Amino acid sequence: MVLKLDKETLKQLQVLIDERVDQRLEEILGDPDEGLEVREEVIAELKAQRKHRKKLIPGEEIMKQYGLGSK
Question: CA 48, CA 36: separation in Å to the nearest integer?
Fold first, then answer.
């Protein structure tokens, strides 16, 4: 038996399958980090990275400054 699905229905089916596979993998494997605490040095590093990212200039802004970009 062959089912013919329109593109939208096929996309919806693919999303449902992906979600179900993700759910099943989570059920089987679980979260290996569950119950663990985040070390202080890791928290400090994440905060430093966030602070650094705030100083970065988005690529789109740089392109505007130099007159580059889609025309």
Answer: 22
1 lies in a domain?
no
Q: How far apart are CA 11 and CA 19, in angstroms?
A: 12
CB 5, CB 13: distance < 8 Å? yes
Residue 63 near residue 69 (C-beta atoms within 8 A):
yes
How many domains are contained in the chain?
1
**Structure-token pair, residue 7:** 């593109």
pTM: 0.41
What is the domain extent for residue 51?
7-30+38-65
- 4-30 pLDDT tens trace: 888 889 999 999 999 999 999 999 998
* Paired tokens of 34: 């569950």
Element (H, E) at 13: helix 7-29
